[in-house]
Amino acid sequence: MNEQSVSGLGMLESALGHSFRDPTLLRRALTHPSHVNEHPEESTGDNQRLEFLGDAVIDFVAAAWVYRRYAEFAEGRMTRLRAALVRTETLAGLARQVGIDEVLRLGYGEEEAGGRERDPNLCDAFEAVVGAIYLDGGIAAARAFVEPLLGPVARVTLDRAADQDAKSRLQEWSQAELKVTPRYRIVAERGPDHAKTFEAQVLLGERVVGQGSGQSKQAAEQDAAEVAWELLAWDDVTRSEGMGEHRA
User: Fold this and answer.
1) Strand order in the sheet with 207-214
2) Cβ pair 81, 70 in contact under 8 A
3) 246 within some domain
4) Same structural domain for residues 145 and 203?
5) Residue 126 sits in which domain range?
6) Distance CA 105, CA 28 (A)
């Protein structure tokens, strides 16, 4: 490895807050399969196995952090926040934040194709780096690196959700987690024409997950979406519908 690469790894270690006892772990975490394909003479290996491990470590660290930090959240809300914290786009952004993109080892073809900017490559590398930190320093070292990054992302995520109307929030979550778009139906109209009250239901698949009312059809749908959002019974819904849980 040349002097510039060694210097880059040293700067990255500073950003990670972890000095590797086994530097080969960090080099492997930063090695995309395309680099190995073009340099079979190297013995470092690619980052795919470390990515597998780091994915699990991040899921655990993020879930434990959300559980401790947001003690007032019900299970469904914790699940949604955790999913936002570990999604590909989020982890790719964190990779850029700590400078992983600058020292990622890519093959020439992948580099020319813009691979250094691709979210999946950066997400994989971030997960691999976390896996490497875990192997080198244990779960405490992994937590020390990951947890400080979660707070700002969580605040932005929660602020964005608060700014959305209930239908938008519900649709964003259900499409990301279940690959299902909510459907609405008006089930009742009451009162005279000049003062009608509408009742609406919102469905995920064939399951009614919320019902609300309002002075217009749109208001009734918003109320139904708000009820569904607050019920936070997503695990029961997915089990009964056989949808399963999907990671974004």
Assistant:
1) 183-190, 197-204, 207-214
2) yes
3) no
4) no
5) 3-163
6) 9
Selected residue with higher pLDDT from 150 and 233: 150
What is the C-alpha separation between 142 and 134, in angstroms, rounded?
A: 5
Check: pTM over 0.70? Answer yes or no. no
Measured between alpha carbons, how far apart are the two ends of the chain, in Å?
A: 36
Where does the pLDDT of residue 35 fall: very low under 50, low under 70, confident under 90, or very high at 90 and above? very high
Cβ-based burial of 192 (10 A; exposed 0-12, middle 13-18, buried ≥19)? exposed
- Any idea which residues carry the catalytic annotation? 55, 127
- Yes or no: say if 243 and 205 are a contact pair by the CB < 8 Å rule: yes
Task: Tell me the β-bridge partners of 190.
Answer: 197
Give how many domains the chain has, as a whole number: 2
> Do 98 and 140 lie in a common domain?
yes
Identify the residue with better confidence: 93 or 73.
93
